[in-house]
Amino acid sequence: MRSKENTHKDRSAMTKPRFRVIDTGLRTGRQNIAFDQAMIDAHLAGEIPDTIRFIHFKPVALLGRHQALSQEIRQQECAARGIEVGRRITGGGAIYLDEGQLGWALVMRRRTLSLGDLANTATAICKAAAAGLSSLGIEARFRPRNDIEVAGRKISGTGGFFDGDTLIYQGTVLVDLNTEKMFAALNVAREKLARKDIDDAADRVTCLRALLGDKTPDMPTLEAALVRGFADHLGLDPYWGEVLDAEERRAAELYDEEIGTDEFVAEIDDPARETGVLSGTHTGTGGTVNAFVRLEGARNERLREVLLTGDFFVTPPRIIYDLEASLRRVPVAGVMAHVTGFFDAANVGMLSAAPQDFAKAILQAVTPEK
What we know:
Layout: H1 4-14, E1 18-27, H2 29-44, E2 51-57, E3 60-63, H3 69-72, H4 75-81, E4 84-87, E5 95-97, E6 101-109, H5 110-113, H6 118-134, E7 140-143, E8 147-150, E9 153-163, E10 166-174, H7 179-185, H8 187-196, H9 208-212, H10 219-234, E11 237-240, H11 245-259, H12 262-265, E12 278-284, E13 287-296, E14 302-310, E15 314-315, H13 318-326, H14 335-345, E16 350-351, H15 355-366
Parallel strand pairs: 1-2, 1-11, 3-4
Antiparallel strand pairs: 2-6, 3-5, 6-10, 7-8, 8-9, 9-10, 12-13, 13-14, 15-16
């Protein structure tokens, strides 16, 4: 006769949610972002199951969804070195990726694992990924809000958002690190180092090669470790599956129509150079917000147009576009009340910056220096 404990374990095993595991192979950055969106669309439509995806990149400099191209990317250097430039569908800062990184993504229903809001979900997923990495012989730990570190140095950055009942949460693991190419591609890398008075990127980040040397695992071994971490610590049942033709077709359409185009990448370029545009910046604990503002009225007392950029995370991403639209014709004197009221009423899944940070950036733009 089975004990109650064994019966409980049997039932728990039977109820573990199944997750397809796929590896979509080496692709360009824009192709990978298009596949991200294709998976979200297909999952929302009920065409694919909950999935763990592994991602491999050809050299690319990827902007965050709300960042300005000319401010973040050294475009001439990228062109000279054959580094593609792309734009993510998630927020955050600009990053450089190549064959030395392994990307991973979970696409699933909110209710599959019932992890709560995005902050709690990020914590649980990052801790699971850290456990998987630790099985390779390192001591990886989750560092709030969304990083995984070893001995205080970042080895993985993550981010994600909800779209309806679908969550996409993804990260990259630094297997090897080419700081020379990273500095060549990104303006942000140099700025951050200067601000923090750090001369060497190794003081902030690390990689498996630096930690494990000749014992650095190959990509299949690393993938298996991450799958074990997700299975053991999130309570899911993974199985290796296939990429569906429908996913590839949808990704190709998204690539051709939007994500793979130069217009999408340059959607936000360098608004500060446009005539009549005022600019302001505010940095809080949740990231930097840049505001680009045009005014109207006899005394320039109203907002005519506002563009908000930065390395903040917000879910869903379209909230920022709704905020920008809502700010048209708002009196300058009422900006703070309007922005805080907007976020109080909006259905925001997660916002790394405070509502006041957006208002302060706008007010910094429109307030003359004394």
